Amino acid sequence: MLKIKNERIKEEVYFETLENGLKIYYYPKIGFSKKYAVFSTGNGSCDNKFKIEGNDEVITLPDGIAHFLEHKLFEDPEKDFFEKFSSLGADVNAFTNFNQTSYLFSTTENFIECLLELVNLVMEPFFTDENVEKEKGIIAQEIQMYKDSPNWKVFFNLLDGLYVNHPIKIDIAGSIDSISKINKDNLYLAYKLFYNPESMVLVLVGDIEFEKVIDELNIEFSKYNTEKLKGIKIYENEPAIINKKRIEERMSTSIPIFNLGIKDINIGLKGKDAVIKDLTTNLILEILFSRSSEFYQELYTEGLIDDQFGAYYTGKTDYGYSIISGSSENPNKVYDKIMELFKNPDKYLTEDGFERIKKKQIGQFLIGLNSIEYIAYAFTELCFQDFLLIDYLDLYEEINFKMIKERFNEHFNPDRICLSLIVPE
Amino acid sequence: MLEIPISEKLGRSINLTSIYTSKFKSNYLSFYFIRPLDREEVTLNALLPMVLNRGSQKYSNFIAIERELELLYGASLDYDVYKSGEKQIIKFSIEWADSNYVNETSIDTKAIEILFDIIFHPVLNDGIFVEDYVEQEKQNLQKKIKSRINDKRSYAITRCIEEMCKTERFGIYSLGYVEDLKDINSENLTKHYKKMISETPIEVIYVGNEKKIDIAKYIPQHIKNRESTIDIQREVVREKSQYRNHIVERMQVNQGKLVLGLLTGIPYENELFEALSVGNVMLGGSSNSKLFREVREKYSLAYYVNSILFKHKSIIIIDSGVDFKNMQRALDLINEQIKKIKEADFTDNELQLAKKEITTSLKKIEDSNHSIASYTLDNILTKKSEKIEDRINKINAVSKEEIIKAFNRVNLDTIYVLTREGEGDIDVKD
Is residue B235 assigned to a domain? Predict the structure, then answer.
């Protein structure tokens, strides 16, 4: 067992690799009644094309299969997992995003029992023609629900504008058409590709007896000897250019909603470098667009934006984008103002702003550590990027204003900007 | 376990409750004006915090406020307007990092100062709010009110409540009405503000580790010396539906929404209220509920179907997103599940799971400073000082018979359907 401590924030993490290769992290939060476990695979909706080792054939999986799989792993021939967890006093849930599928529970009691149930849930698939068909109705309603959400639509339209080939532009749940192609066989195939303990991560947060947990897990995992496939993911060739400059759609909303996106082409980074890039870009966006900026004040007093206006950057090894979003009666004017700002940033992108925002983010990170959920999610996400959450704060020491300016010049390029709009019917 | 809340009466209808704990890396201070939910002033109350948030005497615009907050290591100053039963709560709060982790002890006092500065010392022009601020925030409030239609799920719920409680205060929309805005100006808003601070019950709640700070000191003396304040009436609880409401609204949507409003007639003071809460969770409050199992898992009609009990008003709202063609089927299935509980058609296991669901979420309150504050406020509003453990014990003591008794008072009042042009509606039968 490895213990990693960060002196500055007085937090520590324990690390262990199980016999089957699964990586486990334990983040103690002593005195909390709630305990949290998140069991994840680094495969999500973007993982749809593979080759099997030793075979040249390309396997293309139907869109939405990772999400479908997430729903279906809750199926078991004997027990109802929802009931099982509830009877143990726990809430169980799962989610799928672009590059990760996670199964989690929180509980105040029976932690080990719950954890073993979670392992059982993930490690023992049970698909039948009947239970797969039944799920299609439920997921179809989930897809329809999102179709009525203007915020969801404006975001996916933007991704479609920014990306030419990358599967990130495909809706996480797929479409009603694509899920109709999902069956028991391709689900088992996807399962064998996605759920390999060696490439999975288990994160535990709370007041937990870690050593005991490890012993129990080794015993539990030895029960599952399912066949795994070693898949080689095939990446689409994504050009540096964007797909569309502008996308507009009509929906029943009260006021136009916009997402202005900037495609990141500085990709391929991993670990600390990737996280520093992420932090730096988010610092820039906060300096320029948060409530304390001159720019925000100008647009707000002109009535062009309201307090929903904001910006963030997110990225993984093979993609990244910044989004500036809000609602406005005059989104085109907001767009023009932002483009102008990108041309002449000096008035807004100041060293003073940099120092202030840095302080703000440090404090907000500390406040985030109050929340067991936040820790569990953020820790898992950073794990897949090969970085430890407890070292996050230290990175702020390494970022200087020169790096801010360099990143600004590199990333905020008008040729890689798309505007996505939802306008009222 | 948490330390017992320490309550201090600072003046007439103004109390400070402190919950000390070293569990969090931050301090959370929240402040609540408690007003009656009233059609005459609902829009004014919703607008007020938006204008106050624009600037104070010390920080005359929001850039100044925000920059100060950033220097306090990202302290977050927030406001909210919502309804709790038939009360309109105007809330202000500030959360800031524990000074021990950032090595700057002065941030504690500065953060508290900002909060009270915003509430009690607004920037004024000739004795009234800055007119530009008022006009801009009127625009913003108008946008907020109108944007209610953007989230179809919550829109359908609020519309159902609106129709169900048309003649009651609970039917009032908590952010007010667009048509009220034209008559609001800086002068009458300032007048309303002055009335508000002079007569409104105030609660202040602190959750954190800093015992040395004297929060009371930052509240102006004239507030502590108020001589008369208003009384807030308890919500009216209706027992029986007079006539069946059936509302159909059409919009360009992909998914239909079916929302039912039910009366229970069981106020939270009633000994059957805990049984009602357990029965409600058994009906549709978790993934073990009858609704989830039947409507979603067995018949694949919906992705979500929930049952929510509004404690202060004692009504139940059941909401679901279903395909237009399945509306009738979903309605029948929902009614069937309610009937099952009334007729004792549920197992002991279902009962235990529902209790567990509630007691688990009660235990989790102690892990979040925000939840601790809301729980404390709820105790104050319901005039109780119920510890979490006591509430857990009450839930665990609920019997099958009590649930049946409580559910036999539950009766359907309103059916709200959001559908699309040309798509079917439902038959309402009793």
Answer: no
